[in-house]
Amino acid sequence: MRHYTTFLAITSLLSIIGVTEAATADQWKGKSIYQLFTDRFAPPSATAPARTSPLPETCDPIQQTWCGGTWLSIIDKLDYIQGMGFDAIWISPVSQNIDVYTPYNYAYHGYWVNDPLTLNPRFGSPDDLKALSAALHARGMYLMVDVVVNNVPSLNAYDAVNSTALKLDGSRWTDPAEFHPQCWIDYTNQTSIENCWLGDSKVALMDVNTENPTVVSTLNSWIGNLTSTYGIDGLRIDAAKHVPGPFWTNFCAAGGVFCIGEVYGSDIGFAASFQTQKWMDSVLGYPLYYGIVNGFGTVSGNMSNFVDVAQQVLASFPQPGLLGNFIENHDLPRWRNTTADSQLAYNAMVAQFIFDGLPVVYYGQEQDFSHGAGDPYNRAALWPSNYANTTTYQHIRKLNEIRHAVITNGTLFNGKNFLDSQTTIVASTKNDVAFRKGPLLAVLTNRGSPSVPQAFGVPTSGWSSQSAVIDLLSCKQYSVGSGGAISVSYAAAGFGGMPYVFVSQADAAALKICGDVGVATYVSHNETSTSSAPSSVSIQASKEFISVLAAGVVGLAVALSLV
């Protein structure tokens, strides 16, 4: 397969100037990550020819076969990713997979790795991967690669671990001692989780013996070569909890870059052990994901569970700012598959972006993909969407803009910037929550889109009475009430269930997100009574309040008197 002049120029430049230096955990703080499946993100093109032939006329996820995406085709659509404000991408595994038909069709996803040391020719050549890395670095973006070391697939579950079968399958590991004996996982036993096999009798995932000296030395040498050769800035570790934790310490050290692991499940203490024991830099935030689902997944969901989980996460992880925050991925339902209400989705995304951590958006989330209750339906090709500039695409762009602005500007609150501040829950009810992260105050609800004659009172916003604040999502200007209180009204048409991200007027002016922001005094013309604004304090609307917005544009009621 020939390579095109543009990409040869990029890779030639790399050989002259060298790849970028390894990115540490500290350098990943503040990044936002776009997760994609190489095969499904962007189609072949004149500059990114297909590596698979023939290709299906339509990429139907049910068929579970290759649709033609490559590392070069990702380059074609980097403008689309960067247009949302992302400064890192996470791509599916790059290593060689089994390349035969299975009861679950083909390994288009890249997770059935049988030789980690060899690149997957279905996605491109070594020069192609270098070109992708160089194209990202030229934009000031990071490359994170998914790696699979825990298991090797086999179509013969009960006679897989013998040298002849392993060699025929093209496995890197051909000595039976390099695998744990066959057994299916008992998820109530951590030893079983680490030593027994994933998969099933149709496609068994043979558990690699990561205590074997040959395996350990081979993998550590490989990961160091992979990151340095291809300019990889971060590693996403697949099935991290299925390998004894101490293995990852040396593995990640050998890689020399930021490591974030998949620790599937809601057990906060176990997930936190990967940081407390220093096995790796971070993990994907599954516990917070379940909290967000419970809090925002349905109208009037369980907000108290979200608050409880959020507080436990903050108390349990030494560095919650490095957790990967997501609301969908390739193993989970699409958010809009289970939650049709657009305002619930918007509130969930604000939680994902503003709470401590690194926001991770799975490709298609920005297009409101809803046909995906699970694998393989949640792995559809992106190109039928025409990469539209949807409302959700714009929401993501705004949230990334807010994060980047407060980080770049070094905006302080009580002497701490955004990255150095830990999220604090300020107020909550059964339907609402307000939390502060540095200079930002997020006010969220699970009431859903319809307007309701209710409000949420935040007794202490952190700002002084009568000071001006700006909602960065709408760029509306408001004034804080007595004692620093603010109250969000959901009564006006079109303002039911809206999320808010507030900053002081002075900070908003410095951030320049909302242009010229003057001081305004505003309160809803929808009266807010004590009974309709549950909080630790009572909120009462005053008839002396003056609205400076057009009739019907209502979002925030400011309490100027407390009873």
UniProtKB/TrEMBL annotation:
Mind listing the UniProt keywords for this protein, alphabetically? Calcium, Carbohydrate metabolism, Disulfide bond, Glycoprotein, Glycosidase, Hydrolase, Metal-binding, Signal
What Pfam families would the database entry show?
A_amylase_dom_C (PF09260), Alpha-amylase (PF00128)
Name the CDD domains on file: AmyAc_euk_AmyA
Q: Which cofactor does it need?
A: Ca(2+)
- Enzyme class comes to hydrolase
Q: Where is the signal peptide?
A: 1-22
Q: Does Glycoprotein count among this protein's keywords?
A: yes
List the catalytic activities from the record: Endohydrolysis of (1->4)-alpha-D-glucosidic linkages in polysaccharides containing three or more (1->4)-alpha-linked D-glucose units
Q: Where is the Glycosyl hydrolase family 13 catalytic domain?
A: 35-403
EC number(s) from the headed UniProt entry:
3.2.1.1
Q: What are the TM regions of this chain, as residue ranges? A: none
Q: Does the keyword Calcium apply?
A: yes
- Say which family it is in: Belongs to the glycosyl hydrolase 13 family.
Return the protein name.
alpha-amylase
Gene source species: Kwoniella shivajii
